[in-house]
Design a protein that fits this description.
Length: about 250
Amino acid sequence: MDYETLLDFLKNRRTIRRFKPDPVPDEYVDKVIEAARWAPSGFNLQPWDFVVVRKPELREAIIGYFRDYHRLMNQTEQYREAWQRVPYHKNLDAESDYKIAPVFIIVLGDTRTLKGLPMSMRYDLERRQSVFTSSLANAYLYMALAATSLGLANEWLSVSAVTYPQTMIKQLIGIPPELDIYDTMALGWPAYRLDAKKLLRGKKKMVHDDDCGPDDFRTEAEVDDFIRRARVWTTANHRRGIDGGKGGVSDGI
């Protein structure tokens, strides 16, 4: 693959939030996970395991745990700084959510692999967690790219790593306590297509050469301005319908 082909592929990878109910072939699910197996990991410890959830009753239970948590999470947003609050509006596209996706893939991290790290990391809580998390993030990203290459839609369900949903999911599925949920992917066929992201930071603002100083980086006001625009753009895309020429729904990731 040449660079331009790769860059075009990366530009057009988008998180999709509306799925068709059509089943995903087992071979496609296998290909997504096969790609993840080749991801780089700290000291090649490959801390990942994968749980493929296809049974509707299990997916419904997991969705219920997410819904319970989101009820509380939404209440906390009222305490966000006033300058970056985005007014709540109901989603305009009732069918736009991950519940329709026929497959969930839960990415697990085996904490027992941490003892394989060098001693300088093994007892440094921050460094060992950083290596562990980065390894699992690599595997997840490989999954997302593989899904895109197969024409599949995928959505990040990071809420699965939060204490309450994680505890309930582990009990439901029978996941051993030594394995942590890193993230969950909703996988299925896309019900719409999206163009490349419109809101993207300029390269000149993020690339710095050699002897750079504070003046070469964004000011606090510039960071706050981008946060404000990103939150408005992302929140609008969360609730936007796909009809009436309004485009699709994406979380902007």
